[in-house]
Write a structure and sequence with these properties.
Blueprint: H1 2-27, E1 41-44, E2 47-56, E3 64-65, E4 71-72, E5 75-78, E6 81-82, E7 86-94, E8 103-113, E9 120-133, E10 138-145, E11 149-157, E12 160-168, H2 176-212
Parallel strand pairs: 6-12
Antiparallel strand pairs: 1-2, 2-5, 2-7, 3-4, 7-10, 8-9, 8-11, 11-12
Length: 213
């Protein structure tokens, strides 16, 4: 029985290792050294920005009254995938301090996939914020996404464009590696249970046979 438990343990460890490796492969993202692990960070053309979108939190659409009688809504923070269309508050933190002395313009546009891989085509402009210098490094604006779809926040810094993708109301697709790992995990668990039960049954039958002998 002890040997059986050891075999089951090693099979379980092997299964967990395979699954964790597959999840790591499926969730890996390319990030600039020094910013690994930071959510909502976009790096492009040598610039680093932190993008955050705020929308009303689920179940808190009703207003909360403050002591002074004012009202405010509870908001939830998101990165590039927004759950619903509607009013959204955008903040973009210019991480590189030298960009704070440069002219920065912002456009938020609806886009569609272009003909070439990883290319996009602008459909319409939702807002267009004229260029200015942001001494504090914080760009703030408000936009209303009137329908689900693909959008982009396009920053123009010193004449160079930095595109930040935004998905509104689109369910995030589970990476293929994770979907496969879930199936493999289920098969491995069933196999381990079957292995344990089968050998346990053999041991019971062997004990019964020995008693009869």
């Amino acid at each position: 029985m002890k040997k059986l438990s050891q075999n089951a343990f090693f099979l379980t460890i092997t299964a967990l290792f395979c699954i964790s490796h597959a999840w790591a492969q499926g969730s890996s993202q390319t990030q600039q050294p020094g910013y690994i692990g930071l959510p909502c960070v976009t790096t492009d053309k040598g610039y680093v920005v932190h993008f955050t979108a705020y929308q009303p939190a689920a179940g808190t659409m009703e207003k909360e009254k403050e002591k002074e009688g004012e009202v405010r809504s509870a908001f939830q923070r998101f990165c590039h995938d927004l759950p619903i269309a509607g009013v959204t508050y955008i903040t973009i933190d210019l991480v590189d301090k030298y960009t704070r002395n440069r002219l920065v313009a912002l456009r938020i546009v609806e886009v569609e996939a272009g003909e070439e891989p990883d290319s996009i085509t602008e459909v319409r402009t939702l807002i267009d914020v004229p260029e200015k210098k942001y001494r504090t490094g914080l760009v703030e604006t408000q936009v209303t996404f009137d329908q689900k779809g693909l959008y982009a926040a396009i920053l123009t810094i010193g004449g160079e464009e930095l595109t930040i993708p935004v998905r509104v109301g689109i369910e995030k697709e589970i990476p293929l590696a994770r979907r496969i790992s879930n199936i493999v995990l289920g098969v491995l668990i069933l196999s381990i249970l079957g292995y344990v039960l089968y050998h346990f049954r053999l041991q019971i039958l062997a004990k019964i046979k020995n008693k009869k002998a």
